[in-house]
Amino acid sequence: xxxxxxxxxxxxxxxxxxxxxxxxxxxxxxxxxEIAVFATDGSSVAAEAAKLGGVKTVVQVDNPANDHGLAxxxxxxxxxxxxxxxxxxVLAAGSTFGKxxxxxxxxxxxxxxxxxxxxxxxxxxxxxxxxxxxxVVTVETSASPVVATVRQASFQAAAAGGSAAIEKVSTSAKxxxxxxxxxxxxxxxxxxxxxxxxRVVSGGRAFGSSDNFKLLYALADKLGAGVGASRAAVDSGYxxxxxxxxxxxxxxxxxxxxxxxxxxxxxxxxxxxDARTIVAINKDAEAPIFEVADIGLVGDLxxxxxxxTQKL
Amino acid sequence: xxALVSVKRVVDFNVRxxxxxxxxGVVTDGVKHAMNPFDEIAMEEAVxxxxxxxxxxxxxxxxxxxxxxxxxRTALAFGADRAVHVKEEGEVQPLTAARALAAVVKKESPLxxxxxxxxxxxxxxxxxxxxxxxxxCAQATFASKVEVDGNKAKVTREIDAGLETLEIDLPAxxxxxxxxNEPRYLKLxxxxxxxxxxxxxxxxxxxxxxxxxxxxxLKTTNPPVRGKGVVVKTVDELVAAxxxxxxxS
Lengths: 312, 249
Ligand SMILES: Cc1cc2nc3c(=O)[nH]c(=O)nc-3n(C[C@H](O)[C@H](O)[C@H](O)COP(=O)(O)OP(=O)(O)OC[C@H]3O[C@@H](n4cnc5c(N)ncnc54)[C@H](O)[C@@H]3O)c2cc1C
Ligand SMILES: Nc1ncnc2c1ncn2[C@@H]1O[C@H](COP(=O)(O)O)[C@@H](O)[C@H]1O
Hints:
heterodimer; A: alpha/beta; 7-stranded parallel beta sheet; 5-stranded parallel beta sheet; B: alpha/beta; two-stranded antiparallel sheet; 7 helices; globular; binds flavin-adenine dinucleotide; binds adenosine monophosphate
């Protein structure tokens, strides 16, 4: 039977939403599920993780070195834990945290890594996206443990309703000091988080300035939506990098996605393939975004946007 | 002080790829290939570091078949001084690539190893982190700013929450994100000069590297297609369509 170790992601003493999605993937694999929390003091996160459904044990590894979740510091501890707990699988959300960390863990364990599980066929057989999501590959691995990241847009967060035991554990792995946290510049926003929002509105190069993005924020606030952007809008400095949606940005799966002044390059589309309904507003009727849009409106965003915001 | 840059040959980012009808992969024959865009960014960063005097030599490395030589020539045109071609005609997965790069790193002792954050064909995003693990050195992935200062570097990383800055001891592995820099256009004289720069061929065996356990690809399929949409003419029609779908009340 499988024994799955999930690495929790957390910040500010709270569990990140991606962890419950990795848990949903683990439940599809089936078996005993443990969640590992690495922190200076992981008590509050461990308590939260213990309440998720279907978790057998929460393993709490407290160490001041675990502050900031540095991959080089966590990886040797996870590799050690994978062995001592007899893990058949080591999973984490396919966030920048998980993507930074798990390949390092896999290499320490001498096994390949599977990136972005989108579907579980069997405990060692999965679907994953390649070529910006334009080709889906069914992969099989005979490595043990199976080390994999979970594509967050492909799984609904596992429900709460558990009461797992919390076990405090210390590891003997030698921790490196070659990597030091300096600072984080996090965008504070009152708007829903891009990756869990039910509705997302996104803007592209067409906005022309960060000031014009106010038109988009007004629409977002009317809809209670999260706000995303194309690479061109981020590169041009209209919005911060954490808003980029796409192959190399965030992959999202909202009920409603509204793309405004975005052409629909394959790299952008890679991030929105799982949106339930896509609405496109673009002045060019030939823009590729219309090939994937469920509802399209051809026209100038500077006229359409204020009118739309007002009529909602 | 050397910088080592790994460069991979991939299907050009502009190509609309096609899945082979027999599910054995995607069509790559007769399709335009190019250097992985993130590796162009890595090359550009190395060249800028050399221009600033932070490093003195740039070595480009690729692991792959004969056709990958063109990618090394591109790297040499960017400004690499020489190249190492690890010849392997079979599929090269990240752990094998990382092992090969680790072997080259041990020979060359670079101050900095630069890789792309992901290769846009397989979208794995693993090799740099695996390499750092094998070398037991620092890693700074998804870099949007790199400042080298002696045997330390400050790297700003693009993470989900925003921007994180790390200080790392060198030698270290850095993987590039899109906003690290804008790669230069290659000029004809540089492309000509690149033809004369040395490429050293080696095999995995020469490096003492065994092909790592691999993930098996059973079949490749098309993603589900989205149904045909409607085009509306006015904002009122758009609002009505959204209401009809129950997306707004
Ligand atoms: C390796 C790599 C990775 C990448 N990763 C990503 C990624 O993760 N995410 C991403 O988004 N891109 C990514 N890109 C970039 C991608 O290829 C496109 O360049 C980018 O998505 C274009 O952004 P855009 O649609 O805003 O700009 P453009 O392509 O310039 O499109 C602007 C659109 O706005 C329309 N428009 C102009 N004025 C108006 C107006 N007044 N009203 C209405 N419409 C108007 C135009 O008709 C046009 O369709 C990547 C590229 C590479 C090479
Ligand atoms: N076969 C290869 N040859 C050279 N570099 C590679 C190879 N495979 C991966 N890389 C490097 O590792 C980065 C990440 O690749 P990947 O882990 O495959 O997504 C790429 O941007 C390259 O810099």
